[in-house]
Design brief:
Number of helices: 15
Number of strands: 0
Structural class: mainly alpha
Largest sheet: none
Order of helices and strands: HHHHHHHHHHHHHHH
Distance between the termini: 27 Å
Radius of gyration: 21 Å
Length: 354
């Protein structure tokens, strides 16, 4: 009986490790393909000989770090709206720790940043695990929805829907449709439920994504009476995505003389970042950004070489890693506290408390 119990305990752990291995394997394969493509076009060789605009590259880091800080403050506002006690100092600590775990979960544990946020908050708020998870989920939902809204406005402003490139026209239409669906769904969740919850049950039955959507619906419902907090979070999200687009534009301008306009980056960057819903750590963002840089014309009408967008994406990843230094400092200073919170919450989840 004991051997059977040990075997049963090992299966979930092995399954989790297998999923992580597959994710990282896919990421490595995608990045390797992009590297080969860039090498074939001599993108790296040309970059080495090209003069860099170091002030622009440094500015990209500062702009990105500002956006990252705003995302932490956004989550703090959403958490406090549910009546959870959390100081700004502690919110910054947890937020930057979570950011570090999102970037490198394999290096310091198999818990992602979002779960770490919920774990650390619930560890300090007895009996508030559901609210802690709701704050994390709504933070993600608001961020994604506003990201799509920023892209939709940029598509309209740049007239991308009338581009001679068929792929770009289809992309513009897809952005508008997905954004509209997201807005309608949000209004349905926050408004009065005339179906008595039946439509949420139907959503849960959708294959693959139904349970995730149901959790998002339940989390959003917790904020029905906190619309001011949601509005503030939405405004902060808009600022974040604008700053992220500016950061990538500064990176591109610091590396290359001719790039797509800043207005086009408000389409390119949110579209590329939207691939974050794909459960692969690295790769999808780089693929989409590389593709868009090669398809959207620069200000002089010319096009960037295939692979140069990948270089900009690598620059963006370096910026994210440099920004994670704050989270690493927090982790080294309090890794025992982090480990205890993860251990306690995982045990509670396995016991059926969560």
């Amino acid at each position: 009986m004991r051997n059977r119990a040990v075997t049963a305990d090992r299966k979930p752990a092995l399954k989790k490790l297998l999923v992580i291995a597959l994710k990282w394997g896919a990421s490595i394969a995608i990045l390797a393909f992009l590297c080969v493509q860039a090498y074939q076009n001599d993108v790296f060789g040309q970059l080495a000989d090209r003069p860099k605009q170091w002030p622009l590259l440094a500015s990209a880091l500062g702009v990105y770090f500002t956006a990252l800080t705003i995302t932490v403050l956004r989550w703090w506002i959403l958490v406090r709206a549910l009546g959870m006690a959390l100081t700004l100092r502690e919110a910054l600590r947890i937020g930057f720790l979570a950011y570090l775990f999102n970037l490198a979960p394999m290096g310091i544990g198999i818990v992602g940043g979002d779960l770490l946020k919920a774990f650390l908050l619930a560890h300090r708020q007895a009996g508030r695990r559901v609210d802690a998870l709701a704050g994390v989920v709504v933070d993600r939902v608001v961020g994604l929805l506003v990201l799509l809204m920023v892209a939709s406005v940029a598509v309209f402003a740049t007239d991308l829907g009338r581009s001679p490139d068929e792929m770009l026209r289809k992309l513009a239409l897809a952005i508008w449709i997905i954004t509209l669906c997201g807005l309608v769904g949000t209004v349905m969740v926050l408004g009065p439920d005339v179906t008595g919850g039946r439509w949420a049950v139907l959503v849960e039955r959708i294959p693959y994504v139904g349970k995730t959507l149901r959790r998002a619906i339940d989390a959003l419902r917790a904020y029905r009476h906190h619309l001011s907090a949601l509005s503030a979070a939405a405004c902060m999200s808009a600022a974040v995505h604008i700053l992220l687009a500016v950061s990538v534009f500064l990176l591109a301008a610091g590396l290359y003389q001719q790039t797509p306009s800043l207005a086009m980056h408000f389409v390119m960057v949110p579209t590329s970042l939207a691939t974050g819903v794909v459960p692969i750590n690295y790769g999808p963002f780089e693929v989409v950004l590389n593709l868009l840089y090669a398809r959207i014309p620069c200000s002089d009408g010319a096009y960037m070489v295939q692979g140069q967008g990948f270089v900009v994406a690598l620059g963006y990843r370096i910026v994210t890693l440099l920004s994670a230094a704050v989270g690493l400092a927090y982790y080294l200073a309090g890794r025992r506290d982090v480990a205890e919170a993860i251990h306690d919450e995982v045990e509670a989840e396995q016991a059926g408390v969560l």
